[in-house]
Amino acid sequence: MLVAVGSRNPVKVASVRAAFNAVWPGSEWCVEGCSVASGVSDQPMSDEEARSGARTRAVVARQTANADYGVGLEGGLQQVGPHWFNCGWVYVVDREGIEGMASTVRIVVPPTVMQLIWQGHELGDACDQIFKARNTKQHGGIFGLLSNGAIDRTSAFTDAVVAAVVTFLHPQLMGNI
């Protein structure tokens, strides 16, 4: 079965592959990334914007690749009180239009990183500058940098994809979100 991921980012593609293989270990999955627009800003600044981007990526990727499932993953920031958090959102859609949705864990974004974001940088670029790293958004991301690798983007997104596919595992309980 074909699963289209609405991104060519290797972290996102690997997360989807790991999640589908974990949930359906005996199934044959062809997981392919494809470049699609999210329809939201390069740096989503709310859960609503990140969810919208993830859903758009899932729908467009599924249609573009004529896949059995489309998966959209979109990271974003959300202000909670005086603090900013990073979180990723996941949508999974199938040919019948059934949708599953979930999110990653959240992690506080340091004020020094937020200063760069307010200056127009995306989170990954800001992290590269602060942590003197390179291309962190295609590796461990801010989760990996702040947790010394205990949590990384791949593991966080894998768990979120698993959570999003519960809609397809238990349709009689979940309905369609």
Offer a quick outline of the entry.
Helices cover 43% and strands 22% of the residues. The chain is built from eight helices and six strands; from the N terminus they run βαβαββββαααααα.
Structural notes for this entry:
This protein is α/β, with parallel strands linked by helices and 177 residues long. The chain has a single domain, classed as Maf protein, CATH 3.90.950. The chain is 43% helix and 22% strand. Strands 1, 2, 3, 4, 5 and 6 form a 6-stranded mixed beta sheet that branches. It starts with a strand and ends with a helix.
> Nearest-angstrom radius of gyration?
16 Å
Structural class: alpha/beta
Q: Can you tell me the residue ranges where pLDDT is under 50 for at least 5 consecutive residues? A: none
How many helical elements? 8
Question: Please, how many domains?
Answer: 1
What proportion of the residues is helical, as a percent range?
A: 40-55%
By CATH, the architecture is named Alpha-Beta Complex
CATH class: Alpha Beta
How would the global form be characterised? Answer: globular
Order of helices and strands: EHEHEEEEHHHHHH
From the N-terminal CA to the C-terminal CA, the straight-line distance is 23 Å
> Can you count the beta strands?
6
Oligomer: single chain
As a percent range, the share of strand residues is 15-25%
Largest sheet: 6 strands, mixed
The third-level CATH topology is Maf protein
